[in-house]
UniProtKB/TrEMBL annotation:
InterPro entries: 7tm6_olfct_rcpt. One of its GO terms (molecular function) is odorant binding. It comes from the Eukaryota. Keywords: Cell membrane, Membrane, Olfaction, Receptor, Sensory transduction, Transducer, Transmembrane, Transmembrane helix. This is Uncharacterized protein. It is a multi-pass membrane protein. It comes from Rhynocoris fuscipes. The chain crosses the membrane at residues 152-173, 227-248.
Amino acid sequence: MIIFNTPIFLYSICSASLNFINDYKEEFRNPHMIVPIWFPWNINEFWKYLGALFCQILLVTNSAMYYSSSTSLQLTFAFQISSFLKALQHHLETHGPNSKTVYQQHATIIQLINEYNLIFSGQMYLEILISPLQPCGFGTALIMALKENDPSAGSLLLATILIITTSFVVCFYGQEVSTQMENLHTSAYMNCWYEEKPEVRRDLLQMMILTRNPTVINYRRCFHFDYITFATVMQGIYSYLSMMAHFIDK
C-alpha cells in the first residue's frame, strides 16, 4: 500500500510546490491548483491560497489511500497466484507428471482465478475504460500549456504520467498471471509424457489443454488484462492527443 501511496503523495507535494512558486512570482493573480475544484473563498490572497493548497493536498492524499488499498489487494492476489504457479511448475519439473498433487493444485488455482474474476473483473474493466479519459484531458491541457508557456505544464506532465501508470498496474498483474500460465504449459509439454502410463498421459494432456487456453484474469472471457490491452489504451490516448494537437495548431 505504501508503494502506491508514495508516488501520489509525492506528486501532490511536487505539484503544489511548483504551483506555489509560479503563483508567488505572479502575485497570485491567476492561481493554479493541483486539481481544478471550486473554493467558497477568494484564493488570490496568500493565506487563503495556502489554505486551499492544504485542502487539496489532504484531498489527493485521502483519495490515494482509497485507491492504493484496492490496488494493493489486487496486486497481492496476482503475486500470490504467480507464486503458486511457479511452485507448481517447479514441482512438475522435479517430480514429473506422476504426482496427483500437481493436477489438484492446478484445479484449485483455476478456481481461485475464476472467483477473483467474479469479484473484481468488473471494477478492473471499468477502470480500464475510464482511466484513458483522464490522460486525454490532462494531455490536452498540457499541450495548451506548452503552447502558451504556462508554468503549470510541469504539474500537468506529472499528473498525466501518474494516471497512465494506473492503467499499467491493472494490466501488469493480469500479464503476470498469463505469463506463468504459459510457462506451466511449456513445462508440461517438455516432460517425457510419451513414456508415462496412459492414465498419467490423460491427466497431463487435460492440463496441457487447459494451459493452452488458460484461465487468466479477464472480464467475462472476452476482455483480458495484459500488455496488449495497455498498448491499445496507449494507442487510443496517442491518437486523441495527436488529433487535439492538430486542432490546437490550427
